[in-house]
Amino acid sequence: MRKMKYIEERFFRVLMFLSTCLIVLVLFLIVFSVLYKGLPALSWEMISQVPKGGFYFGKEGGILNAIVGSLYLSVGATFLAFVIGLPVALFMNVYLVKHKKLLNTIRFFLDLLWGVPSIVYGAFGFAIMLFFGLRTSLLAGIITVSLFIIPIIIRGMDEVFKSVPRGLLESSLSLGSTRSETSYRVFFKQGIAGVITALLLSFGRAIGDAASILFTTGFTDHMPSGLSQPVATLPLSIFFQLSSPIPEVQDRAYASAAVLVFIVLIISLLSRMFSNVYHKNKIQF
Amino acid sequence: MNNTKITVKNLDLMIGKHHILKDINTSIPEKKITVIMGPSGCGKTTLLKSFNRLTDLYPEVRLNGQIMIDGKDVLHTREDITKIRKKMGLLAQRPYPLPMNIYNNIAYGLRISGRKRKVWLSKRVEFYLKQVSLWEEVKDRLKEPAARLSIGQQQRLCLARGLAVEPEIILADEPTSSLDPISSQAIEEKFIELKQRYSIVLVTHILRQAKRIADHVIFMYLGRIVEQGPAEEIFNNPKKEITMSYLKGKFY
Questions:
Q1: What was the pLDDT predicted at B251?
Q2: Closest by Cβ to A171, choosing from B59, B92, B100
Q3: A211 and A270 share a domain?
């Protein structure tokens, strides 16, 4: 009997160890292959210039337009989603605490929205653009991408605020604070580290997604020049370069992918630092 | 008897199909320590939380009856609930300091009621920290997060924070249950000092604590009030069988 238990424990330990290794290995392989193919093609020219004539046939130029465009697009969309999502997440956890069934329904629908493929959001954004007679533009892209990441950001923050203990809510209310004071002065402060993680998660989704911006943002070889103009984005830039038959251009696609990975990495590191600064006030329960 | 601070009339509380509080009728005297005791799950905490309507936060709670504070019914009122809650400081089973520094934990309640002048705030913070004998321990580290204090210090901070909004009543829900004996004693001594100015309602299942500090006792069992009255009377000659066996430590 004891021996069975020992074997069981052993088996699951090995299993967990192996699956952890597998995940790390896959992650490593992805990053490695991108860097291996991309780094040789990555040059200062590549990240400091816009495409010149014949860039997609292997001639001179770079992807600065796509880097800047992607940053504008995802920062804009994340900001918009945050401004809309934060009040929703706070409302759910400070105002609606009594209504468990309603909350579960809201969470269910948000999870459903989270699961909808981004191309559907792209098509939806496109339909709205047609309805209003808009052209492909940065603004249309920002709106579409923010629609796509709003469920992610809300559920991310919702999980954070859900873990704020009931006692803290009760304490704050007992001091005579209104629910909105409790939301922004207590819940937000207690959850700020998690809120930043949620922001980061949605920023990562926003900057890496190609399908939702395919029809809405368009593409251009110029630097972004305004909200109503089309902008280039990294995912689409990678897509166009990778679909070229010329090997040199394909390598540049990997270089662009490497740039995308670096941006996400830098943003992660920055937000980690930022959240550590605010983490110190959090009460551990 | 003295003046009554809280009067409860025919209070029933249901959570879904469970009848938690059954026909509660009681009155809580002003400027005394009233101890609500009874075995776990008898509804002590629920009764306490219905006083400042924290029961509003729980799903499927239905309340019937009246809770009068200073003669005003708080269950059926159009008055702002935050004003009613401000009258009652809450001390929970374990300390829940706010996620901010020590100074702001006290200043928070003052700021939300519109007091913003820095000099005045600092004076008040010092005053209330002295009230709970915490000032000497924290005066050099007011800007540190409250989370760094020990549990006992946090509980005293929570008491000071509650006092700072100038309540008339202190609701304490087993406030010493997560504390070490010395911190518990500090809280008990504070309560005895504070009863000159505040009406204190203390929920506890520590019989010895009740005997040490109670002026008035409410004994609850299975959602009903079994017996209530002045402390000596209940402890020395309980009238009901259940009270007697509880006091002898026959069940918890």
A1: 66
A2: B92
A3: yes
